[in-house]
Amino acid sequence: MLDSKDIKFVLVETSNGGNIGAAARAMKTMGLSQLALVNPCEYRTYECYSRAAGAFDVLDNALVCQTLEEAIADCTQVIGTSARLRSLSWPQLDPHDFTELFGTAPEGSKIAVVFGRERSGLSNAELGLCSQLVVIPSVADFSSLNISAAVQVLAYEVRRAVLAQDSASAPAVEEAKVKSGDLPADHEELERMYAHLESTMLDTGYLNPDNPRMMMPRFRRLFNRSSLNRSEVQLLRGLFASLEKMARHIKA
Ligand code: SAH
Fold it and tell me: Do the Cβ atoms of 117 and 68 come closer than 8 Å?
């Protein structure tokens, strides 16, 4: 089961403190808190904290290391990121396949996602520590995102995977809480509603039995497209009943 705490974002030799702040903010918005900084610049600057926009806990709890090996020491899987396609030695993933990995990671896994330097990315030696490489499919002739934007994209993908996992495992109690009115109307309820609609339209004169103009099939198509639930069917039938009453009143 994927837990945000088991995902560590590692930034290698980031040279701009503002980027570190922005990355911390990007992570926090997506529920990620595990940040490691490998040999960072002097980052506790005004620009860094202002770009963090309140994600100070992520910054203050960041693990600062001298080498990438240190930062990933407790990780069971290391995934690199790169703005451009590298040689075939690294299996390349797009951001979607990357989060699919989480679903299959065995219990107890800890995954590192490694981001490179603003100018030169990750070295071949650093890439050698990664089992896979995620490439955000940007356009070929302008492929390099700002590092904090790359962090945001991948943090969002992780978030989507966590949300999908949470909703798939929502307890059965939640299902019991669904009100009966929220249940989709079944075939019989819809047929009764169509019969009611037809009699109402006849009563009001909107439907001319001698010239029906495909009225019922058109209404059926409209309502079938809306996936009505039970309470919506009741709502419509209440409306039909009031129109019928009025039509009868006018005729009387
Ligand atoms: N010139 C460098 C660009 C570095 S951008 C290079 O070619 O690698 C800084 C970091 O942001 C990259 O090392 C990577 O971690 C991340 N990044 C930028 N664009 C990316 C993309 N399209 N896909 C994945 N990661 C990207």
Answer: no
Categorize the per-residue pLDDT at 113 as very low, low, confident or very high, splitting at 50, 70 and 90. Answer: very high
**For ligand 1, is residue 84 a contact (CB within 6 Å)?**
yes
Ligand 1 and 151: CB distance under 6 A:
no
Ligand 1, residues 37, 68, 81: which to mutate, most atoms within 8 A of Cβ? Answer: 81
Instruction: Count the neighbouring beta carbons within 10 Å of the beta carbon of residue 125.
Output: 8
The answer, yes or no, to whether any atom of ligand 1 lies below 6 A from the CB of 22, is no
- Residue 138 CB–ligand 1 contact under 6 Å: yes
Contact indicator for 79, 130 with CB cutoff of 8 Å:
yes
**Average per-residue pLDDT for the chain:** 90
Chain segment 36-49, per-residue pLDDT in tens = 999 999 999 999 99
Fold classified for 181-251: Helicase, Ruva Protein; domain 3 (1.10.8)
**d(Cα 148, Cα 152) in Å, to the nearest integer?**
6
Ligand 1 pocket, residue 81 CB under 6 Å? yes
> Which of 147, 152, 153, 154 to mutate for ligand 1's pocket (most ligand atoms within 8 Å of CB)?
147
The domains of the chain are located at 4-168, 181-251
Span 4-168 CATH architecture:
3-Layer(aba) Sandwich (3.40)
Q: What pLDDT digit, counting tens, does each position of 71-103 carry?
A: 999 888 899 999 976 565 677 889 988 888 877
Handedness of CA 208, 212, 215, 217 (dihedral sign): positive
- At 16 the pLDDT is 97
Supply φ then ψ for residue 63, to 5 degrees.
-85, 125
